[in-house]
Amino acid sequence: MQPSAANPVDYSLVESLAKNQHRKAYDGVIQYGTAGFRTKADILDHVLFRMGLLTVLRSQVKKAAIGLMITASHNPEADNGVKLVDPNGEMLESSWETIATRLANVQDSQVVSTLQEIIKEQNIDTSYPASVIIGRDTRSSSLPLSQAAVEGVKAMNGNLKDFGVVTTPQLHYVVHCTNTNGAYGVPTVEGYYEKISKAFKTAVGDKKDNDKYIGKVQIDAANGVGALAVKEFKKQLSDVIDIQIYNDGNGQLNHMCGADYVKIQQIPPVNAPLKPLVRSVSIDGDADRIVYYYTDENNKFHLLDGDRIAILVAAHFKELLEKSNLDLQLGLVQTAYANGGSTAYISETLALIRAKSHVKSKLRSTVLSQCSHHLIAGHNKTRSNQNQNDEFSAPSLSEMFQEFPYNSDLPKPLLPPSRIQRDSVREDSSMELINLKNKIKDDVNRYLELYKKHCTTLDRDKNKTSHTMLPRYVATTAEILECDPDPEFSGTYNWYYTGGTLNGILYDTRNILVFPYAQELIALPVSLNDVSLFKPDFKNASKVALKRNPFQIVCSTVNNHGRILTRHKNECCVYNIFNMDKKKLQLLEIDKQPSESSYISADLDPANVTRYCTTSINRSITIWDTTKFRGILSGKVPVTRFFEDSWAFIKYDEYNTNIIKYVDRHCVHYYDSRSPIERPALTMCPKESLEDWEYLSSYIGSCKSEYYSYVGSNLSLCLLDSRNPSSTVIKKWTHQFKSSPLFTDVCFRENKEFVIIASQIPGETAIILNSWNSSEEPPESYSTPFSPPSCIETLMASHSQGKCLSPQLQNRLSLCNTGCMATVDTPSGDVFLLTQNSVNDIFYQGIGHQEQLDLYSLENCKALYKLKIWEREVLKNSCHDIVSPLVVTQRTSARDMLRNFTNQKLKSSAYNNEPDEPFNHNPKWKRSVAELNTYVDIFAPELLAPWEMLAETPMVPITAAPHQKVLSWLGMAEKNQEVTTGPNTSDTPIVVETQETHHQDQDVFITHDSESIQQLFLPKVKSQTTQGGKKKKKRSQYKVPVACVPTGVKHLHHKALEFDIGVYFEANGHGTIVFKDSAVQIIRTAADNPSLSENQRTAAHTLSSIIDVINQTVGDALSDMLLVELILRAKGWDTVAWEKSYRDLPNRQVKVKVQDRNAITTTDAERRCVTPMGLQEKIDEIVAKYPKGRSFVRPSGTEDVVRVYAECDRIEDVEKLAAQVSIAVFELAGGIGTKPVVP
Q1: Of 1122, 1044, 1052, 1144, residue with least CA distance to 266
Q2: Are the beta carbons of 1082 and 1103 closer than 8 angstroms?
Q3: Cα–Cα distance, 1075 to 1082 (Å, whole number)
Q4: Residue 746 φ then ψ, to 5°
Q5: Residue 722's pLDDT band (boundaries 50, 70, 90)?
Q6: pLDDT higher than 70, residue 1091
Q7: CATH of the domain at 562
Q8: Of 73, 131, 365, 722, which is the active-site residue?
Q9: For residue 291, pLDDT beyond 80
Q10: CB atoms within 10 A of CB 4
Q11: Is residue 107 part of a domain?
Q12: Is the confidence at residue 158, as pLDDT, over 60?
């Protein structure tokens, strides 16, 4: 149901309120920073009123509820502030921070006009009913400021929910719950308490304490609004954790207490009950920051800040993911201010990045900000040319885009499998050239290296004869090079296949697919039935014989005249396609043009049925006429620069067929066929906008506009505008393929252009969706690129149901792509993607489904069924290759084997060269049990590590746990039985199993099985321990990537969203953990999956119970505290054990008061200072004096101070380092007040 429209806004009322009740009381500029507006409370009335107005507009833009929180967090009581909360409970989008600053600072008379400008700029539908949620902290100024915001909301006719006094995380929570219709939780403060408390109790269970962990914690509530929340949690969780609270609201807010005070001063807060080794916590004024600390027996203060929390959480989650064996990407996000000790621990223990395929989380935004990119890698985020000089801000761009709006079903086979040789599956024919050239290159390099190693100096021939002697390696190298089947080709992928061998045309109102199949060229009509399945019309198809498979197929229709071009290495063939009767198709070859040099691209003239063009490896272009059977125009493209190889691509312009586009690795050249091919009429060089290591690899024109085209490179896809050759690249997407894209296609539906790119690697396909408003203007991309599922994923889905288990099938589906195309079914408008592999199997899938598809949807069930039938045909076609499966027998004699081992006639001749040492055969594989008992098994620690077992265990029954069986197997031995050596050895019965090894296409058959086989007495082995007698650590299976972003929780939050599970905490204790919805579903499914082991289910269940303890909306000190308590309890740690997990470098954070904090600007994620001039050089000079020294400076986001961070190896030096850098900031950045001094 559509919400009822809002009443029109009375702007005269807005103007009256702005000029009278809420007049501007401050002439200076008030800036909306990372934490919103923060300044003195007595000048904020007009700001709150205007933010009430703006929040309504923001709600109408997002068509969702928006939050407005009145708080100044850790600032003094006299300050206050306001910040807006976006629909997902996140910070306000960066672009709207500028809008908020602009509205807050205009004159009273300009408020209405500014609102109207914002409405026009943002294209806001003001009839949409806005929803605003307001909360405030406990400051005395918060209530009147809240009333000003309420008046602003009501003046804009917004719907209002005022929750009164709440913590900042509680407001974020309510906003998120409201916009998810309660899916995230009940959108009330009571719902917040109930959700977190219930989840914490479930996770704790019945055991309150564990080992060193004692379920008791002291909380410093900073005399802020968080005290109310602590008291409520204390009441609800009293049976599982003992919470003691001080600074509970009876004192001055944030005065000598709170997380920020403890972190900066590194001393306990006022009123703290200093008991040794008692776990203590400080939160800030609005309860979104947290730090831990304790005092030891010597009354020494120990701080456990946000870095410690981040490492603790990431390490625990990593451990749970390993135990549950879930394929989820865990990521950790930090700032430059993270302690160097934590960074070292991460790099050594967590941060070996696990390789991931697909288009997520490959490059960091800091890398891209230094390059000419228009997006974050893996995402479709663009910016126009006129804004290229704007500051690159990944988080500000991320909210402009949504998920891909369509869904794809699983690929399914279109054709029956062709009969192929088994070697075709084992060795991919499309990669044969690459593999052979690599082998030749390796052989040549090997001989050259051998020569360099053993070469001798050759004397000059004094006789000056007409012949000379060459080293043997020269002749050998020449022989190897003569084996090169294609000396002109070079590269890391087979670019002969550019364009692909799969194509189609709309001919006589029918969709015709054209492709090679079993050494034949096929033209096959296909139609669509009601369940998105293609129905091939084999009866009316046509075929012609091919001597070899082509590298490219091009199709075209002109006035219902269909043509097909096939490009082979040394010839091009053109066929006419026509109807013999009303339906039956016929193919007729009308031209064939051989070539001594290799053809590398060809195209049909889209307007002239008699012409086509080709280009060869020597850069020559030829236009052919099929009626004259010869070329009518030719020329050679000049070489103007060095090229990596000889790749090129040729294409007729669809809108002006006199133009031929020639694409090489650097540029796109436009040649006019009406004049000699000597120099291009136009050249566009997208290479100038690419990276040094990028090169072009594919090209296609837009099907919507004559001015635009797409060019692919090994790193990205670019949109080109031919009207502006000097700045031709106007949009850019990074595809993240491992190989260069060879196949590019476009299709159009509902004003949207589907751009398909694919490489030879199976599964490397991406779809980019562009929305066109005009053929004159460039399209807009509102969604991230989409990677549709591959046929391997169809196979994996079948495997999950116990079907399609033949290894032959998996090998066949893993072959390289040789073609890819998209097509739109004319009657239904459905969009389909078709791919072809190197043995001519074709798979298709719908990529334009509006509804969400799961594994059990009708389309996917049809795909699984078709694959099952297809597998049956594959096995039937290869039945002549099937051999006997592996057979295990109970034969116990190895006399034949021993006879061959002891046969003197088979003795190596090498022994005859040493008659003084006659050969005495003593089989090395045969040893007594007593001797075997003395052996040391150096692999035993690795075998035992997965079960965390060290000691050997006695024999266990068959029904024992798996790890006990393995240990028993390792430890069993028959002390009485020994194998003797001597002349009668061959008669000694030896228990072995004779195996006949064959290709494993079918199941393994066992002739006889018995439980007694586990009672075999095997030799005992001893475990070798590592140095110091400790067990070797198990190699980590999960690797945690670590990203560094600028300071500000918004930046960390947006970066964390790129991972399945993202962990982020600033050093000041502000942070949380975010889970993707898909990750939550995977975890909770695994927790209840009976097919998993008990250990896996337990770990998944632990993760599942933790999820609801976490408030995932930007940061919540109290939910973070409960999460830390859960982890410490699970590990049995107290704060001392936690601190010992790794060593922090001594550090210090100092605030320096300055006249204008904007005098400090930074770069490289705030690690380098840009202005004022000379400050960074001074900092570098100071830091160089201290071992392991680091220091960064940045302007505060909430007050006119510069924050100085310093760390080094010695605690006595860190104070000096921080003071010296502070002095430099004071002197060069306009410090005010007392100048810092060096202690």
Answers
A1: 1144
A2: no
A3: 11
A4: -135, 150
A5: confident
A6: yes
A7: 2.130.10.10
A8: 73
A9: yes
A10: 8
A11: yes
A12: yes
- Helices and strands in the chain, H and E counts: 30, 52
Task: Verify that 287 and 328 share a domain, yes or no.
Answer: no
* Residue 51, helix vs strand vs coil: helix
Buried/exposed code over 517-540 (b: 16+ C-beta within 10 A; e: otherwise): beebbbbbbbebeeebbbebbeeb
According to DSSP, residue 1037 is labeled S
Are the beta carbons of 368 and 393 closer than 8 angstroms? no
Residues 224 and 116 in one domain: no
Banded pLDDT at 521 (limits 50, 70, 90): very high
Question: The dihedral of CA 650, 654, 660, 665: what is its sign?
Answer: negative
Place of tokens 């190895």: 894
Range with the lowest mean pLDDT among 440-454, 912-926, 1109-1123?
912-926
Q: How many CB atoms lie within 10 A of CB 160?
A: 17
Which among 640, 603, 639, 593 has a CA at the least distance from the CA of 620?
639
Number of domain units in the chain: 5
Q: How far apart are CA 271 and CA 258, in angstroms?
A: 11
* CB-based contact 1072:1112 (threshold 8 Å): yes
Helix locations, 360-458, DSSP H: 365-369, 394-398, 422-426, 432-454
Alpha helices in 703-841 (DSSP H): 791-800, 807-813
Query: Would you state the structure tokens that stand for residue 687, as one six-digit string?
Result: 């290479």
Domain extent at residue 265: 212-303
Nearest Cα neighbor of 307 from 1052, 1224, 1199, 951 is 1052
Question: The pTM is what?
Answer: 0.50
Helix (H, G, I), strand (E, B) or coil at 1104: helix
**177, two tokens:** 């719950």
d(C-alpha 249, C-alpha 112), whole Å: 40
From the number of C-beta atoms within 10 Å of its C-beta (0-12, 13-18, 19+), residue 995 rates as: exposed
- In this structure, what CATH number is given to the domain that contains residue 113? 3.40.120.10
Do residue 32 and residue 151 come from a single domain? yes
**Residue 501 sits in the same domain as residue 531:** yes
Q: Any bridge partners for residue 1104, and if so which?
A: none
Neighbour count for residue 307 (Cβ, 10 Å): 28
State whether 1095 and 1223 are in the same domain: no
The mean pLDDT value for 231-240 works out to: 93
- Residue pair 350/1039 in contact (Cβ under 8 Å)? The answer is yes
Region class of 499: left (phi > 0), else alpha (psi between -120 and 50), else beta: left
Q: Is residue 996 part of a domain?
A: no
User: Do 318 and 288 share a domain, yes or no?
Assistant: no
Residue with tokens 């398909």, as numbered in its chain: 756
Is 466 assigned a catalytic role? no
For residue 882, is pLDDT > 60? no
CATH of the domain at 1188: 3.30.310.50
Nearest CA to 80 among 20, 36, 133?
36
* pLDDT tens, residue by residue, 189-215: 999 999 999 999 999 887 788 889 999
Do 237 and 312 fall within a single domain?
A: no
For tokens 């989820």, the residue is 328
Q: Which two tokens stand for residue 304?
A: 């456990």
Q: Which of 242, 272, 303 is the last residue in one of the domains?
A: 303
Residues 282 and 323 in one domain: no
Angular region, 195: left φ>0, alpha ψ -120 to 50, beta rest:
alpha
What pLDDT digit, counting tens, does each position of 1048-1066 carry?
A: 788 888 888 888 999 998 8
Picking from 1144, 1171, 1193, the residue at the C-terminal end of a domain is 1144
Asked if residues 158 and 86 have their Cβ atoms less than 8 Å apart, the reply is no
Q: CA-CA distance, 557 to 576, in Å (whole number)?
A: 10
